[in-house]
Every structure is written in C-alpha cells, then in structure tokens.
Amino acid sequence: MSKKSLYTLWILTAIVAVALLAATLALAARARTYQILNDTVYLTSREVAVRLHQGPDAESPVVAALVPGSAVTVLDVSSGDGQTWYHVQKGGMTPGWVPADHVRLNPP
User: Fold this and answer.
1) Residues 78-82: what's their mean pLDDT?
2) Of the four listed, 10, 17, 88, 106, which is most buried by Cβ atoms within 10 Å?
3) Interatomic CA distance for residues 32 and 26, integer angstroms
C-alpha cells in the first residue's frame, strides 16, 4: 500500500472511532437519564426559587416555584430548548418542567 492509501485508511478509522465513541456516550447519558424516572431528586438554583414551567422550554409559562433543596419526583424526561428537561412534581402540587442543571440526585 502507498503512504497516501495508509494515511487515508488511518483518517477513516479515526473518524469511525470518534463516531462510535460519541454514540456510546450519548446512549450512556440517555440510559442514566431514564434511570431516575419515578425517583426522588432535589432542586437546586442560585436564585431564591426554582421555577417549574408548563413545558420543557424556558419560554413556557411558569406553573409553580419551589425553594432550592425541595425533594421532587421525576415523572418524565424530555429534550427541548437545546437541553434536557425533567418533568417533576412535589406531593400533590401541579407538576412542572425544570432544566436538568436544576436537578441533583443527592440532597443538598
């Protein structure tokens, strides 16, 4: 084989390896996300309240607000607005959607 052919083969192998790695990481993240359905998680925020939205979108109307540290149950997971959102509920309150960066698995 010529040097050019070996170089081309090496580049194609590297591209395939990167694509497989990205797919594996995406599947692992998705599996981890769905493992918390029906689990209790804790809300976190730098603000005074964590806003729960009507839909998985920051522009969606706010249906409730909870203090950071509140324990909530994860009802569903969705992607919207370029990020992962969790549909959560506290007791009998109205459920709402929060961005994944406002959810912790462990108490604060």
Assistant:
1) 78
2) 88
3) 10
Q: Is 75 exposed, middle or buried (0-12, 13-18, 19+ CB in 10 A)?
A: middle
Evaluate whether 94 touches 63 at the Cβ level (below 8 Å): yes
Integer angstrom CA distances of residue 16 from 11, 21, 28, 56, 59: 9, 9, 18, 33, 38
Residues 6+ apart with CB under 8 A from 46: none
This prediction has a pTM of 0.68
Report which of 101, 67, 103 is spatially closest to residue 88, judged by C-alpha positions.
Answer: 103
Pairing of strands 103-104, 71-80: unpaired
Helices marked H in 1-76? 3-34
